[in-house]
Each structure stands twice: as structure tokens, then as C-alpha cells.
Amino acid sequence: MHIDTSATVISNKKIIPEHYKMEIYSPQTASSAKPGQFIHIKTSRTTSPLLRRPISIYMRDKKRGIISILYKTVGTGTSLLTEYKPEDTIDIMGPLGNGFPLGDEQNRIALAGGGVGIAPLVFLALEASQLKKQVIFIQGAQCKTTLIETRELKDAGCIVETATDDGSAGFHGFPTELLKKYLEKERIDTVYSCGPTPMLKTIKKISLENKIQTYISLEQKMGCGIGACLGCACRVLVNESQGSTYKRVCADGPIFPAEVVVFDE
Ligand SMILES: Cc1cc2nc3c(=O)[nH]c(=O)nc-3n(C[C@H](O)[C@H](O)[C@H](O)COP(=O)(O)OP(=O)(O)OC[C@H]3O[C@@H](n4cnc5c(N)ncnc54)[C@H](O)[C@@H]3O)c2cc1C
Ligand code: FES
């Protein structure tokens, strides 16, 4: 883990309503980042808010030493991020977390993301394409105007599908329904997902029904981000006899096999 107090903002642009893309110059972070990992950002130069905010790595350019993040403004911290201008320094910690497993056994993979949850999946899709994996990328959004541009994925050879809740673009329905259709007709080795909790619950159900290896990225409010404060605990199943235990989303996750995650009812 690395703290870069002098990372530099290269650009910070609104791309669709409430969603921004920020490019940050931080060569060490860019060279060591793995898909699914996140950075913990000090959003303010004052002590308020005190806690850093976790944001996934969306893309990286190793050669230029740049990482990108995609963030949605939902409160104080993410709103403060919008005020950063090119050449401002920004205090980031990372890359943190475990990242998505991606090995020889994963040749044909399906990625399903909801809303801003597509961020870590875009990084995964681009890396997987470089490794010559076949990638089906399903983006879910409320409507056409909240879809994130995915040109880079198409250029990289990924099959890109969209699903909108209101049917204004692509498939009319949830990305999970589109994923089910793919699983019915094609062999998929592994599913990866990130998005709102109701979506992840459905992904877990699909994973169990289809007996397909599935990894999900969990979101939890965080404190330290490095496994020390236990503020980000989530419940996971150990086995039938031992029941469940708690894991830290920041250090043991944020990626977990879907079948072990215990969601609150
Ligand atoms: C590993 C990880 C990766 C993430 N990656 C991204 C990303 O790539 N892009 C992005 O936009 N967001 C991402 N998030 C969520 C992001 O961290 C929160 O939206 C952010 O911390 C909210 O801070 P805030 O000060 O703006 O909002 P606050 O004022 O703290 O809260 C506003 C609202 O957001 C909810 N919230 C706060 N923190 C979280 C959280 N960690 N997870 C879910 N809901 C939260 C609160 O319950 C509240 O309803 C990620 C979270 C985790 C744990
Ligand atoms: S945020 Fe402190 S242990 Fe995870």
C-alpha cells in the first residue's frame, strides 16, 4: 500500500448528470493497480470530512502513469471531488483491496455492472481483453441519459450490451435479466459483478442456480481502508458446520465469491 500525497489531477469532467471522470497522475498506483482494487481519497484539504472515501480504479494507463476514477456525487465527499481542477494535488492511498481473480480457467467471462458499479468492471474488461479473454460486458442504467460511454471496451474487442430500466436504450429490463439470457445460450466460465445491493443479491441467486463461478464487489462505508478499524465488516459463510463469520471489505475484499456473501434480509 502506498500513500501518494502529491498525486496530480490531470482532468476532472462531468460526463453525464451526477457522474464525473477524474484522471490522476500517480505512476506508482498506475503500475501496481489490479482490476477491482480501489483508492482511498482524502476529498478535502481541511479536516472535514475526516474520513477518506473509497473509489474504484476505473482505468489505468501504465505508460503515462495515470489512473482514472468514475464517481457519482451522492454526498459531501464526492461533491468535494468535483471541485478539483487540473494540476491540483490530491491525496490518495492505494491501490487497496484484493482485486478480481482472473486466471487461465477464465476464458469466456461475463461482467454485469449497475450504475456507477461498472467502474471496476471496465478496468477488468480492458485487462482481460489484453489477455485475449472473450469478454461480454453488460451495463445496466436507469435510462439512456445515465449510460456511460463504453467506446474503449468495443475498441478492445469486448461484446458490449446495455440494459435500461425504462427501455430507452438496449434491453428493456435489469442487467441481471440480460445476464440470465446469456447464461441460457452460452458457456460462460466466470461472472463478475458490481452494483447496488439488490442487484448483487440477484447475481448471487443466478450464480447458485446456474452453478457458475461468480465474484462480486461489495460496497461498505469505510474508515481506515487498510483493515485496522473493522468499520467495514461484512458477513460471509465459512461452511455449513461453522456458519458465518465477518470479513473486512477493505482488506479481505472488496471482491468475494458470490456464494459466500451473506446479505441481510
Ligand atoms: C470498494 C468501494 C469502491 C467504490 N467505488 C466507487 C466508484 O468507483 N465510484 C463511486 O461513485 N462510488 C464508489 N464507491 C462508493 C463511494 O465510496 C461512496 O459513494 C462515497 O464514499 C460517498 O461519500 P460521500 O461523502 O459523497 O457521501 P456521504 O455523505 O458519506 O453519504 C451519502 C450517501 O451515500 C451512502 N454511502 C456512503 N458511503 C458509501 C459506500 N462506501 N458505499 C455505498 N454507499 C455509501 C450513504 O449511506 C448515504 O446514503 C465505492 C465504495 C467502495 C466500498
Ligand atoms: S475500513 Fe477499517 S477495517 Fe475496513
Task: Explain what this protein looks like in three dimensions.
The structure is a single chain. With 265 residues, the chain is of the alpha/beta class. It contains 6 helices and 16 strands. It has helices spanning 27-32, 76-81, 119-130, 151-155, 175-185, 197-210; strands spanning 2-16, 19-25, 38-42, 53-56, 59-61, 66-72, 89-96, 108-114, 134-141, 159-164, 171-172, 190-194, 213-217, 233-239, 243-248, 255-257. The strands form 3 sheets. It has a 7-stranded antiparallel sheet. The radius of gyration is 18 Å and the shape is globular. The structure holds flavin-adenine dinucleotide (FAD) and FE2/S2 (inorganic) cluster. The site of flavin-adenine dinucleotide (FAD) has 23 residues, from strand 4, strand 6 and helix 2.
CATH class of the largest domain: Alpha Beta
Bound molecules: flavin-adenine dinucleotide, FE2/S2 (inorganic) cluster
Q: Output the radius of gyration.
A: 18 Å
Main sheet?
Answer: 7 strands, antiparallel
Principal-axis shape? globular
Q: Number of domains in the coordinates?
A: 3
Structural class: alpha/beta
Instruction: Tell me the span between the first and last alpha carbons.
Output: 35 Å
The H-and-E topology, N to C, reads as EEHEEEEHEEHEHEEHEHEEEE
CATH superfamily of the largest domain: Nucleotide-binding domain of ferredoxin-NADP reductase (FNR) module
For this entry, give a set of tags:
single chain, 265 residues, Elongation Factor Tu (Ef-tu), domain 3, Rossmann fold, Dihydroorotate dehydrogenase B (pyrk subunit), domain 3, seven-stranded antiparallel beta sheet, 20% helix, binds flavin-adenine dinucleotide
